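Researcher: I'm comparing several assemblies side by side, and this is the next one on my list. It has 773 residues spread over three chains. Same procedure as the others: predict the full complex and return the structure.
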Amino acid sequence: MKVFRFFLTRVFLRKPIFAIGALILFLMANYMAFLTAHSVLSTREGYQQMAHFDKEGTFVANLDPDSDFGNKDISKASIQKVYDRLDSRYHYALYTDGMMTNLANGRGVKVPVSYMNQRYNDLDGFPIAQGRGLKFDYSLGRKDAIPVLVGEGLADDYPLGTQFKMYDPALLREVRVKVVGVIAENSVRSNFYALNSKKYYNFSVVVPVTTAFIKQADVSFNINALNDLVLSDTDRADVSELGDYIDKTIGAKFNLYSYQDNIDYYNEYLFSSLRFLTVASGVLLILIVLLSVLSALISVRVMMRDFTINLMVGLSYGRLRRLFYAYYAGLSLIALLAVFAMAAYSRHSYWRKKDAFLMTYGLCGMIRMDWLALLVASLFDFLLVAMLAQLTTWRLRRVPISLGVLQ
Amino acid sequence: MDKVIDLNLDHKTYRKGSSSVTLLEHFSLTVTEGEKVAIVGESGVGKSTLLNILGLLDTRYEGSYRLLGRSARTLSDLESAAWRNEKIGFVLQESALISSLSIADNIRLPLLYARTPRKGDSRRFDQVVDSLGIGSILSKKPLECSGGEKSRAVFARAIIMNPEVVFADEPTASLDSENRSRIIALLFALNRDSGSTIVTVTHDASLADQHDRIIKLQRKD
Amino acid sequence: MDRSILRLNNRLELVFLYLGCFLLAGFFVYLKHQADDSEVLMSYIKFMIEKRRAFVLGFSAFVLVFLYQLVTKAGTEVRCRVLVGDTLRQIKLRYLVECLILLGISFLLSTVVHLLLGFEIVDSFYVLLALAAYVLLSAVFLGAR
């Protein structure tokens, strides 16, 4: 330790420009490796979620971007016809979220309400931490309580078994609800068309949707729910027929894609983008490695005299190598901590902004994916540190200890 | 005899942060044309500082200094440089060579800074190289030469402009006895043949003894 | 042999490094162009696009390291030159002028490449300013040893 302190203050930091240069390169390497790994892991997670719909005869709906659906005035009667047809001829899974309600809670967060029917629950229901899952055999009478799930963040205010009144943005009235389950911490859903885009459900309420619920719900809910409709046990002809029917009935053009269609889309857009990201990051990381090596060799050349004198008076090459390891490991640790601070700040900012869909639990709000990405960055650091320490020692070994060098 | 060096120093102070060191307090030195003067003294007493002042490398001191009849204070930065080029030669230790240049280029370096190209420069170069016996190493880089060869190259660079005054800073340090004798002989031959004034800073007592005068610097208690 | 402390290989290395910085800025502009046409790609490389100037400046810091070692190594040479009739001020001035001329040449070359590729050159100006600042800063370290 005494030797390291001596080297740190009298050799390595005596020419701080080299330390600053190396630190900048380590910072960039960590930042790049962290965000690239994060994107890859996030996409992988989304891809795994999407795989829940990897079944023969399953189709996922989305609104055709060319449709002028948003400008249309759709009546409850016409959209109900669409749902009636769905009920009579199709098996469909329904899930929608994004509607907000004011529900008193300790964090003062505006609470999003999500809606899910039984088939969707069977396909891709939320993991439950407490209680049981959603129940769909409830009555929608004014006095009856709707069984709901709440996120981990609401569980203290509304524990399992609690009944409370809540304004339902789909029914447009106050309803009595009962907590029948608490969603597991940091439960996440990925956007099917941007797999690295996430929503977390720590502050959500999930309401079970039945045929009766759809009938009573507001038109806007019915329209939103169509956007992410999932049809199962069907075929392309039936799906196509449904598309035509929706177009004819409410004037909206919907695309219904099978899992395979989506895979094709991923291959064409998502994976090519992901490939682009990894290639670009790879190129930049290789450049960082090259510059780090050059910078380390330059610093050794400039400080050759200091190293030679120390070697002359008894420092072994093995110990010198350990000193280099400690020095570069210290720099990489600083860089890693900076990236950690940046990631933690980003996660924490969602809590400050009370962004219910992005508030996550963990140390400073950091979730597993963040830690994994940090691990990838630290592995890259480890390789870089080892490379630099070995190279610099090798370079010094090649210089004979002589008066010539000292002069 | 004309005074080549007429120095009257009040003191020279080095400052670093809040601490300061004062050297050469109330120091006077007069050297006449063709004289050989050795300056001796223990380390840190200000020998090299004195040489820097005499060689117009350091102008931050209290006192007056006239070199070759002209006040050093009246010389501009450019004029000082020109004087170092034309009138002064520095003989330093062997390490004072540019490692990326060949020995020939190192020796020719003063010619590069001459205000006007002079006739006979190349003849002078050949003459200096021959007299020092370094013709065989001209194309070599300093790192490829021995200590003695490098010392002779430094000497050649110092005398190529036929300087009126030569300042030598530990010219024999780190040399073996053969090369040491050779450099001493060259130094005094320069004085004898060209009449150059020689001021040598040295720890080498036998070298100092061969000068006309020895000035011993002492620390003020 | 000339009065400069830069050798031919130093000059080539400098031009290479300067060009590298400008081309790197171009690489980030290329990434931006690619992402401008695709929201999906933008979602993936947004961090590179948004922080591209910081990245290029980070990479360009290596030039400062390189210049620093150049002037540090030149310590003995500066001393020798001053002894035989040069002045530190003139050595610094020549160094600055030469480095800036090489920077200007590299900038012009990279600008031609950028314009041929249809890239905007705004980012190159940031790099130009940063590199010029590095040259000025490195000149501070130039001195006799």
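Model: For your comparison table: Chain C touches chain A at residues 24, 27, 31, 34, 38-41, 43-45, 47-48, 55, 58-59, 61-62, 64-66, 68-69, 72-73 (CB under 8 Å).
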